[in-house]
Amino acid sequence: MTHWIIAPVVLPALLAPFIVLAARYHIGIQRVFSVAGVLALISVAAGLAWQASDGTITLYQLGDWAAPFGIVLVADRLSTLMVLLTAVLALFVLLYAIGSEWDNRGRHFHALFQFQLMGIMGAFLTGDLFNLFVFFEVLLIASYGLMIHSGGNARLRAGVQYVLFNLLGSTLFLFALGAIYAEAGTLNMADLAQRVRLIDGAETVGIRLAAVLLLLVFAIKAAVLPLHFWLPSSYAEAPAPVAALFAIMTKVGAYAIIRVYTMIFSPDLDVTAGLHTTWLMPAALASLAIGMIGVLAARHLDRLVAFAVIGSMGMVMVAISLFTPTSITAALYYTVHSTLAAAALFLIVDLVRTGRADLNLIAQPVVPGAALTSALFFLAAIAMAGLPPLSGFVGKLLVLDAAFSTSAAAWIWAVVLSSSLICVVGFSRAGSTLFWKAKSMPVSDEAAEPPAATPAPATLSYVAVGGLLALLVAHTVFAGPATAYMADISDQLFNPEPYIETVLDTPGKLSTPKEGY
Length: 517
Fold this sequence. Notes:
By secondary structure, the chain is mostly helical.
């Protein structure tokens, strides 16, 4: 049993209280330890991903208690991919927060940032549904604090809405866990995958109810229509680095759907057949359409990007809802793309905000640095809209190819292609208004003066955004190997027996139930 699996959870969990207790009044020390912690996290995540790349499934038993009695963490291809993606995203977000001084506009930013990472990492690595709930709550509690970082009435109102919707999701999650435990007597995913197949066909009401409730919970996390209302205001009002980190939050919901509905409630399971495949596809297509229509209708740049996130999640969920190895491959490739593209756009929104009175999509005088900002916006918009040659185009081709032989192919192709056109028009309108039309307006004396801020923070901010866009380019250039690796992940998901055997057959305390236990 390797202890490296728990490092992505323990490292930020130890670093956060250290920052609060030892460096709460020293922002420089906080920055050093926070960046060092994220770099260490990337190293550990890369090592775990390399170890899992050949199909190895590694188990960590907390307290050496064997499943299903003890808590287990499991590192396979899917979980290590998501852990590595989160760690890399966190580095660029943290660099931007430091460069733009967002971390110095309120207390405890770095401590909350580390707690947020702890919750996300735990959610990806846990092998138990109850501990998935626990890690959901950890990351949500941290996100509440990050959401209202630096204060403001608008941010507070959006934070309250964010809290209420997620509390609803948490309540439904508890109901679902109670129903599952009452029916199966376990919450360990591997053990549950075996037990649900033994449930009598005449006594499936409880487990079917639990499967539907879980789907609702994960749909709330993934902002799937009609459970998406919390996202536009929350992401638009959140501080830019926080909104960029939140780009991975919706992917936690998508990850949970992939994990639970390929291992436990798989499409070939008679007990829950059709429950998720019937309703998830229409909701995903509606999310894609509404998200991109929101991009076209948005009057503020931050809300435009928030609606683009809803649309991109709709695209991911369209692929997931097909529940075939090819479609899950497409969903995973597009998940990586949309996470990086959404994070870059949220940071670019903050760059646009600098020197402007507001983020209204109306022509305003030119501000310093507009040329570089407009170039970054152009690249990120191309990526999010799915235009060639960047990875968004490749991801959409994979989704369309996965849907080609299905009965819903006509609907999927029609919605994907039309929504892509709408997205292109929406981003083109926003970009031309912000950067091109601005050149025809007179430049005020204040705008003509050089910015008072030192160049170093601005440079670091641009480096962070450029790094995310560089990753998008790399995701495009290495689309072949990336797609092949996603296909390997998909094959492992649709063949869960090695995962189940690793979790249940690894010896530990009470590996064999004792008499009378």
